[in-house]
Amino acid sequence: MDYRAICLSACDLAREAGAYIAEQRKSFTFADVEFKGAQNLVSYVDKQTEKMIVERLRELTPDAGFITEEGTVTAAVEGQPLKWIVDPLDGTTNFVHDFSPYCVSIALMDEDELTAGVIYEVTRDELFYAWRGSYAYLNGQRIRVSATDKLENALIAIGFSYAALNKTDGFVDSLVHFQNTTNGIRRVGSAAADLAYVACGRCDAFYHTGLSPWDVAAGVLIARQAGARITDYAGGDDYLFGRQIIACTPNIYEDFKQKVR
Questions:
Q1: What pLDDT, on the 0 to 100 scale, is given for residue 77?
Q2: First to last CA, the chain
Q3: Which of the following CATH numbers is that of domain 151-260: 1.10.3720.10, 3.40.50.920, 3.40.190.80, 3.50.50.60?
Q4: Which of 29, 120, 174, 232 can pair with 104 through a Cys bridge, CB separation 3.0 to 4.6 Å?
C-alpha cells in the first residue's frame, strides 16, 4: 500500500476541512453550541466536518473502518485491517471561543500499526504530516524534536480531562512541580496541537491523561517520526487506547517519565 500517496491525499482533505471550519468560525455564535457534558462542547461544525472527512476517506479507501469522535458514521472496525481514526475538530472549546489552536486530526492504522498521520492547525495554516517510514513535515519542511538535554530547560505541554482536577492522584501536584522546576508549563487545549508542537520542537515534552484514540493517533505518528519517545506513563505501549500518554524529546525522556510517574 502506498502510504505516502494516502497521507498526501489526507493532507488535501485536512486543508479542505480546515477551510470549512475557518469559514464557519466567521459567523459562529454560542447559540450553536451543544453540550455532551458540563465542559464537553460540540457543534454542527464538528459533525459536518466529520461527515465530510469520512465521505472523502471512504472514496480513498472503500474497505476501511472508522473510529471517530462524534460518531456520525457507523462503521464496524472488527476484522478490518484498515481503520481511519478521525477527530474533525480537536479543540472545540477553543474554536467556540475563537481561541487558538484548534485542529483537524486524521490517522490511518493498518492492522495495529499507525501508517499515516495528518494534523492541520486551522488558525496558523500549519499542516503537520508523516507516514510509515517517512520524516515528519510541517508545510513541506522536515521537522525534528528539540535537542533540549536538561528537564530544567524544558517547556512542558500538559493536558487533562476535566475530571482529573477533582482527583487526589497527584496530578495537580505535578503541575506545581513542573511549573517550579522547568521553563514552565502550557495548556493549549488541543492534544493534537500539543503533539505537533513536540514534533517541531516548540515544546520539549507533553503528558496527558483521559484521552481517546482520536485525540492522539495522528500526533503520535508525527511526533514519533520527528524523533520523539512516545509511551504511556509506565513506559509501555498502551498510549493509543490506554488514556495516558507521554511524548518527549529523547534526551530528557527518562527523567521526565519518572517525574510524571
A1: 56
A2: 39
A3: 3.40.190.80
A4: 120
